[in-house]
Amino acid sequence: MVTVPFTGTGIDLVGGNDGTAVLDVRVDGKLVAKDAGTAASAKRTAAYALRGLPEGRHTATFVLRSGKLVVDAFDAISRNVSGKADTRSLRTALDAVGTPRQEEYTADSWTLFDTARSAAKAGLRGQGGLDTIGARQLAARLAAAYDGLVRADGS
């Protein structure tokens, strides 16, 4: 586990890696990605990139679930983006998940879903510093959280 404070709208985990690492990622104490895959990467390139956060001070915690991970550095991403983000992926993702009912799911799986859904909604409202890559990542995190919802009744 490694925790890193940063200021910005995202953070890259940099290091030469084989792409086998699977991570859980928390930002400011909230789980934002569970069982997130990493990319095979050369030295000084990102093995994992997290985008779409609100501009500001954050603390990111990366927990290695499996595989091997080499960390050389972290690179904070600032809000300096040009133009308006294409947020169609967010609208599509929000439409796809619909309106599930909290009481039908376990608390842990609901918390991750609700965090992802709130972030996607913030992106649609014009969150400062959001770029198109961040919007796509928010949409992907929402879809993954929705797919990871666990029914409370075990069905």
Protein architecture, described:
The chain has 155 residues and is of the alpha+beta class. Helix content is 28%, strand content 33%. It has three helices and nine strands. The strands form three sheets. It has a four-stranded antiparallel beta sheet. Strands 7-2-9 form a three-stranded antiparallel beta sheet, with no helix packed on it. The radius of gyration is 16 Å and the shape is globular.
Describe the structure concisely for a colleague.
The chain has 3 helices and 9 strands; from the N terminus they run βββββββββααα. The chain is an alpha+beta fold.
What is the strand and helix layout of this fold?
Blueprint: E1 2-8, E2 10-14, E3 17-18, E4 22-27, E5 30-37, E6 40-41, E7 46-50, E8 56-66, E9 73-77, H1 88-97, H2 107-124, H3 132-147
Antiparallel strand pairs: 1-8, 2-7, 2-9, 3-6, 4-5, 4-8
SSE ordering: EEEEEEEEEHHH
Hey, roughly how much beta strand do the residues contain? 25-35%
Q: Termini separation (Å)? A: 33 Å
Overall spatial form: globular
Number of helices: 3
> How many strand elements?
9
Largest sheet: 4 strands, antiparallel
Q: What does the radius of gyration come to?
A: 16 Å
Broad structural category: alpha+beta
What proportion of the residues is helical, as a percent range? 25-40%
Low-confidence segments, ≥5 residues, pLDDT <50? none
Q: Looking across the biggest beta sheet, what order are the strands in?
A: 1-8-4-5
Mean pLDDT: 92
